[in-house]
Amino acid sequence: MKGLEDLSKIYEKVYVLRLGHRPERDKRITTHVALVSRAFGANGFVLEGICDDKVRDSLLKASKSWGGKIDYICNVDGKEYVKKWREEGGEVINLTMYGINVEDVIDKIIISPKKKLIIVGAEKVERFYYDNSDYNVAIGWQPHSEVAALAIFLDRLFKGRELFYNYRDAPYKIIPSERGKKVERK
Question: pTM (2 decimals)?
Fold first, then answer.
């Protein structure tokens, strides 16, 4: 895709807020939510209530090898973070099985120039987040992975452009190949 712009410049800010991380139970899932956030165009990953060095280290390792930068913020009060985000003029998107189908709201979200906070829950999400979100968005109405929901939502938000973006500062670049693995070292 020629002339692909830096994804971080499309919107002022796209952050993902992970609620309810339980390190003993969610370590791989939360890490995957963080890595999908980074790979699919988000500028920041926020972990509610706790700091998890393994999640941070995975983000740093991915950026070191594949380029780019994602802000990592941890140990925040999720409710206060949402309130502040909205006070600063941002909009909040809660990914939930109980929301409006992504196809029915994505165009409205795309045209809004506001910074975006995408909420991804780990356990039961409190009513506060439904009531304080600008959009409660469903990626279908069947039980599924929050990792899948986030990937699909970000793909719709960036209209698939994130799939073609390579960071300029990446030490490694994958060379597409029908068979085998080809990696170029810059």
Answer: 0.91
| Residue 177 belongs to domain spanning | 10-185
Alpha carbon distances (Å) from 45 to 35, 71, 74: 9, 6, 8
Q: Cα 91 from chain centroid?
A: 14
Task: Please state the domain count of the chain.
Answer: 1
Query: Position of tokens 């970000």?
Result: 154
Q: Where are the beta strands (DSSP E) in 20-148?
A: 44-48, 71-76, 91-101, 116-121, 135-138
Residues in the chain: 186
Which residues are documented as binding site for S-adenosyl-L-methionine?
Answer: 95, 121-125
Per residue in 85-123, pLDDT (tens digit) is 999 999 999 999 999 999 999 999 999 999 999 999 988
| Sign of the torsion formed by the C-alpha atoms of 43, 47, 53 and 58 | negative
Distance CA 145, CA 160 (A): 20
Bridging pattern class, strands 135-138 and 116-121: unpaired
Give the residue ranges of the annotated binding site. 95, 121-125
For residue 29, being part of any structural domain is answered with yes
Q: How far is CA 35 from CA 16, 38, 115, 147, 151, in A?
A: 11, 5, 20, 9, 10
